[in-house]
Amino acid sequence: MNRTxxxxxxxxPSCAIFQFLHYITANITTYQAWPKACGNVDVKVDGIxxxxxxxxxxxLAYMQSAAAFARxxxxxxxxxxxxxxAVNSSYWGLADYINVFENSAGAFTPSLIPSLDGDxxxxxxxxxxxxxxxxxxxxxxxxxxxxxxxxxxxxxxxGALLISDxxxxxxxxxxxxxxxxxxxxxxxA
Length: 189
Prior knowledge:
By secondary structure, the protein is α/β, with parallel strands linked by helices. It is built from six helices and seven strands, in the order E-E-H-H-E-H-E-E-H-E-H-E-H. It has helices at residues 21-32, 34-37, 60-73, 113-116, 137-147, 176-188; strands at 6-7, 10-11, 47-50, 78-82, 97-104, 126-131, 160-163. The strands form two sheets. The protein has a five-stranded parallel beta sheet. The chain has a two-stranded antiparallel ribbon with strand order 1-2. Helix 1 runs parallel beside helix 3 and helix 5 crosses helix 6 (176-188). The termini are far apart.
């Protein structure tokens, strides 16, 4: 798609947008209708993960429209923007969570957190996806505690976290159960 393709007489902002807004709103409308489509079974979409969300402020109007539509269509949705990097401060008011880091374990260090979450101003909303983790179970518990558990002690922290031992998203992480236990331990400390 050309970054400045027109829709009628309006033009998209010159930023990397992978779907026209009407495709996103159509998808959200479809998700909202799942309970009826499934025979009114207990199927509820209570969140939207906006993948490849922009980090700079040039797409603010686009993200405002997408977030407003999701909030008006779904019942009490949780909105997560996946920018994978520090974002323009104007986005923090639009989403419940913003994924500010998506990279390998080798590229992550807790000292990065202040540069990603507005020096702690948005710590409760910031999240990270760390993949390719090869540490031991003991190291995982320690690493999770240093990332999510330090908020209680006034240090840098994130509101949400995923640490996966795989480097791709086509399988379920083998370290899932240990990761969940580590998060539970960090949150109970």
